[in-house]
């Protein structure tokens, strides 16, 4: 497995799942005849971010992970989404950005020193530690929380919706 496989390929799959969950949330609100914006401010606990912020942070983690590993500037987003459609557009924008990466963009990534805004001066992480100890865990935390908020509020989602498509191979392929 390469850094590309562990990051871009995986987070793209989960962002597409997240987009489908938001689509299901909008359909759920329409069926139940309530404003879907209600879901955007739903949260699991009073001191936890609401759904809209969970989606924004998941998107930020996805794009920043790839950018940091490839030594690119971090693309900004304004965090102004106020509708499910706008959140879905943000996911599409981040997915498009991630689709521009190729495995060869990660050449030399293993030599980078990854620093994060909250780290003390002079502190850094190795890229493999950044991926395995921080970036993927943080991404999945926010994606899972978004899923849990929607599920908690009655959106009909199940385990298959979370996992999404799994590539299946025949017994003779390797």
Can you walk me through this structure?
With 174 residues, the protein is mainly α. The chain has one domain (3-163): dinb family like domain (Four Helix Bundle (Hemerythrin (Met), subunit A), Up-down Bundle), CATH 1.20.120. It has helices spanning 3-32, 37-40, 51-70, 84-99, 127-152, 159-163. The two termini are 14 Å apart. The mean pLDDT is 91.
Brief synopsis:
Helices cover 58% and strands 0% of the residues. It is an all-alpha fold.
Distance between the termini: 14 Å
User: What is the averaged pLDDT score?
Assistant: 91
* Helix/strand order, N-terminal first: HHHHHH
Report the biggest beta sheet as strand number plus sense, adding barrel if it closes. Answer: none
Which superfamily, in CATH terms, is the homologous superfamily?
A: dinb family like domain
Which fold name is given in CATH as the topology? Four Helix Bundle (Hemerythrin (Met), subunit A)
Indicate how many domains the architecture comprises.
Answer: 1
- What is the number of strand segments? 0
**What structural category characterises the helix and strand content?**
mainly alpha
CATH hierarchy: architecture: Up-down Bundle
According to CATH, what is the class?
Answer: Mainly Alpha
**Approximate shape:** globular
Proportion of helical residues: 55-70%
């Amino acid at each position: 497995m390469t850094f590309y496989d562990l990051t871009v390929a995986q987070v793209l799959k989960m962002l597409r799942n997240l987009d489908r969950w938001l689509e299901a949330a909008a359909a759920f609100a329409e069926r139940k005849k309530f404003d879907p914006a209600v879901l955007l401010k739903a949260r699991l606990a009073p001191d936890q971010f609401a759904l809209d912020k969970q989606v924004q942070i998941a998107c930020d983690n996805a794009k920043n992970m790839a950018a940091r590993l490839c030594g690119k500037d971090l693309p900004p987003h304004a965090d102004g989404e106020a509708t499910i459609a706008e959140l879905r557009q943000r996911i599409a924008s981040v997915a498009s950005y991630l689709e521009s990466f190729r495995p060869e963009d990660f050449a030399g990534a293993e030599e980078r020193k990854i620093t994060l805004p909250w780290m003390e001066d002079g502190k850094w992480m190795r890229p493999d530690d950044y991926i395995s100890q921080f970036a993927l865990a943080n991404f999945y935390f926010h994606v899972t929380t978004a899923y849990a908020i929607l599920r908690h509020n009655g959106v009909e989602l199940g385990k298959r919706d979370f996992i999404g498509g799994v590539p299946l191979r025949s017994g003779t392929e390797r």
